[in-house]
């Protein structure tokens, strides 16, 4: 029997984990996204009561209402709700947000990060500018998408419902392509706003880095002027490094998420296959001209905090090297001083040794003379007393010298 990889089914089902809602124009799409971070979340009770049909991974599902379909979806850091209902096409009868939708939105966890309303109309039948409520052409971004099979219009401003309104004019899209185009638009806005969460953090990081760099410059300037304050400078550098590390840890994950979300935004924009509509700026141009600099600013903030950490590390290494060199010089001076003391001690020892030989020889000669005097009655010695006395002196001195030298060698060995 073939042994399957344990996660084979899960890996295959990933292709079907986020199904789109397919529909024809005219229709209205409401979409809300809620930032939840790393908190665990689950489908709202109201949605479960509607008979939510989940995918195999439990991260998305679709429920049917009397007016349309609601899609619930869990992303890495946010949860989204999308409601698609059909519309008669009458300008005066564009559906308002239903009570069931308002209740669902109120049950959602986290904080709302995005709110979108897409009015899907038919080209040649509906006036996009009228549905959009734009005052001048300068306020509008327009693109022909999907090989000119549809047009997308938006001012990217909040309407009276505190939502961003888009108008999608369908030229030649079927239900499947309409659903996918709407999905891409929703993802562009969700990922764009999730990416921009880091912008205030990046601004704060830049301000803090300026302070860090000023403090570092002060420490570096003091390195050559305050050699006696090296211990204090090391403590200041350690404190500065700790603060920079704290900022790096607290911002690193957010800046990495921004980079990932921005790549998704640019990928979804490319999937729209935009073309220019005379008299208007393209949707992608409008977004990129404002979005890309913000992303670059976040990337620069991340790089700047890394550079600050690197500079502090180099300054710490330089100061430690300076301290090490100074310690080595002090050790060398100490060794030289010890060597001089040893030399002095050796000379003193040699001098003392000389005095010792004289003293011992003096007492030995005295004992020798006493011995000769006590043996004076011996005839053989009495006749040679003077000779023995004179001959014994150098022998005694040499013997004492030899014995002292030998004793010193044995002690040093």
TrEMBL record:
Q: Which UniProt keywords apply?
A: Membrane, Transmembrane, Transmembrane helix
**Domain of life according to the entry:** Bacteria
Key word Transmembrane helix present: yes
Q: Which Pfam families match?
A: DUF3422
Q: Is Transmembrane given among the entry's keywords? A: yes
Residue ranges crossing the lipid bilayer per the database entry: 387-404
Q: What protein does this entry describe?
A: DUF3422 domain-containing protein
Q: Which species does the entry assign this protein to?
A: Brucella intermedia
């Amino acid at each position: 029997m073939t042994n399957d990889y344990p996660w084979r089914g899960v890996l295959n089902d990933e292709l079907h984990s986020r199904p789109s809602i397919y529909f024809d124009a005219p229709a209205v799409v409401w979409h809300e996204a809620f930032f939840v971070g790393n908190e665990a979340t689950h489908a709202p009770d109201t949605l479960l009561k509607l008979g939510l049909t989940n995918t195999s991974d439990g991260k998305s599902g679709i429920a049917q209402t009397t007016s349309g379909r609601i899609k619930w979806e869990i992303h890495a850091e946010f949860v989204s709700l999308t409601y698609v209902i059909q519309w008669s096409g009458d300008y005066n009868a564009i559906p308002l947000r239903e009570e069931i939708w308002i209740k669902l939105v109120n049950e959602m966890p986290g904080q709302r990060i995005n709110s979108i309303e897409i009015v899907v109309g038919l080209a040649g039948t509906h006036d996009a500018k009228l549905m959009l409520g734009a005052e001048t052409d300068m306020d509008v971004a327009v693109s022909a998408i999907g090989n000119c099979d549809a047009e997308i219009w938006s001012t990217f401003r909040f309407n009276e419902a505190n939502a961003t309104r888009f108008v999608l004019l369908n030229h030649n899209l079927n239900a499947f392509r309409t659903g996918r185009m709407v999905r891409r638009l929703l993802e562009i806005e969700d990922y764009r706003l999730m990416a921009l969460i880091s912008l205030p953090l990046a601004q704060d990081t830049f301000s803090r880095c300026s302070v860090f760099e000023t403090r570092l410059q002060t420490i570096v300037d003091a390195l050559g002027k305050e050699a006696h304050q090296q211990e204090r400078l090391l403590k200041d550098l350690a404190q500065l490094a700790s603060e920079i590390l704290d900022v790096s840890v607290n911002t690193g994950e957010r800046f990495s998420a921004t980079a990932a979300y921005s790549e998704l935004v640019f990928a979804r924009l490319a999937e729209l296959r935009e073309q220019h509509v005379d008299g208007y700026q393209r949707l992608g141009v409008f977004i990129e001209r404002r979005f890309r600099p913000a992303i670059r600013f976040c990337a620069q903030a991340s790089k700047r905090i890394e550079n600050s950490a690197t500079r502090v590390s180099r300054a710490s290494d330089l100061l430690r090297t300076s301290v090490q060199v100074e310690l080595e010089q002090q050790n060398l001076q100490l060794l030289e001083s010890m060597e001089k003391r040893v030399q002095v001690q050796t000379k003193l020892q040699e001098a003392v040794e000389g005095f010792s030989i004289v003293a011992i020889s003096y007492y030995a000669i005295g004992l020798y003379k006493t011995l000769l005097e006590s043996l004076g009655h011996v005839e053989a010695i009495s006749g040679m007393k003077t000779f023995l006395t004179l001959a014994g002196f150098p022998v005694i001195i040499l013997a004492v010298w030899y014995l002292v030298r030998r004793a010193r060698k044995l002690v040093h060995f």
